[in-house]
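Think of the structure tokens as a kind of shorthand, similar to the way a musician reads notation: each symbol stands for something richer, in this case the local conformation of the backbone. In the example below we present two proteins back to back. Begin with the first one, reading the sequence and then the tokens, and try to describe in your own words what changes along the chain.
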Amino acid sequence: MLDRLTARAFAGGVSRSLHGCRECQFISLQEDAAMIDTAVERIDRMLAGLPTRARRAFLLNRLEGLPRQMIAERLGVSQGTVERDLRRAFIHCLAPSGECR
């Protein structure tokens, strides 16, 4: 399952850009948290059919913004393998299964 803290960190820029009263910020943070939870669940379902390595490569690339070479080093595979895994993940996400759209 996608780490909720990673997803919250990914969306952290939204909450840092808030201006105004504390109550508004608190309400907005609650709304942000609910939206993030929904997004995390949707991403989780979308990536469910992928092999673990392809899923991890996709999340490292899209959520953490790591380049392919760093992903390869972190996963202990070649950069070509990472490129194939990312391609597989993107194709999987674009498949007309309804959930990924």
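Once you have a description of the first chain, move to the second and do the same.
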Amino acid sequence: MRKTYKIVDENGFHARPANDLVMAANRFLDTEIFAEVRNRKATLHSILGVLSLHVQFGDQFTIIANGEQEVEATRALEEAIFNLKIGELME
């Protein structure tokens, strides 16, 4: 399952949103969850992986989830993105 968001936070991702996304992803350890930004890919199960993407304002941030709970994981991550007000779903 894939979903793409446009990053609307002027600061992009810093430690707090990265941590919140990792915490949401880690509720689904049986599901592979990756983020892709500017042709770079990292696991969402690792804060260092998320921070290594250097997500900036205006970036397209794609979540890729594969596994038993991919739908639930994607929903949880989307909820975190919306609650943090860092991204909007792209159509």
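Compare your description with these statements about the second chain. The chain has a mean pLDDT of 96.
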